[in-house]
Design goal:
Length: 186
């Protein structure tokens, strides 16, 4: 369905008008949406939560919500922005759930000491992920959307229901915090 409207071009996002032309969108239409946005939404949620299993669950919840609220989509927004807003809200819900229901971590098994490029790269990535995870939720959301998903300040403001100036401020504070946290690595 979306291809009929020429809306699956690389730089063009799906718009509400394409959805509203169909009273009852088919499962194939939704699967097309899922195929296009599953990975970006999953990556975004993972960056907010830091847990792959939980991220899969939350991403699935996002697409269930999108399907259930198909007819409530705002025509002035891009689908990606709408999905990221749904994903952010679902991730915040999960973070709140974690605070109310803490789980004790299992003892980790120590890894044998090996010095390889792959291990060093993975450790560096883990340190960066931990530094991002330590940011306040609003700064973490802004930095992940800007750096990992390439959203503009206006798009991030739309996802976060704020102004572009507040996004700029959050990005500045996030980058300052990351510089300090990651200074030993630089």
């Amino acid at each position: 369905m979306f291809r009929r409207f020429g809306l699956f071009e690389k730089d063009i996002d799906l718009r509400y008008g394409a959805w509203k032309t169909m009273a009852n969108p088919s499962d194939a239409d939704f699967e097309e949406l899922l195929a296009r946005y599953r990975r970006p939404v999953l990556n975004f949620v993972y960056r907010l939560l830091g847990d792959a299993t939980e991220s899969e669950d939350v991403a699935q919840e996002v697409f269930i919500r999108a399907y259930q609220h198909w007819n409530e989509f705002d025509p002035r927004r891009k689908v990606s922005t709408w999905l990221f807003a749904l994903a952010r809200n679902a991730a915040i819900d999960r973070l709140r759930y974690r605070q109310r229901h803490p789980v004790e971590p299992l003892d980790s098994v120590p890894e044998p000491a090996t010095v390889s490029r792959e291990v060093e790269t993975r450790e560096l990535g883990d340190q960066i992920a931990a530094a991002i995870q330590s940011l306040p939720e609003d700064q973490r959301t802004a930095i992940v959307l800007a750096e990992y998903h390439g959203l503009s300040h206006a798009e991030i403001a739309e996802v976060m229901h704020g102004s572009e100036k507040s996004v700029e401020s959050r990005l500045y504070r996030a980058r300052q915090s990351l510089r300090i946290a990651l200074a030993p690595l630089l």
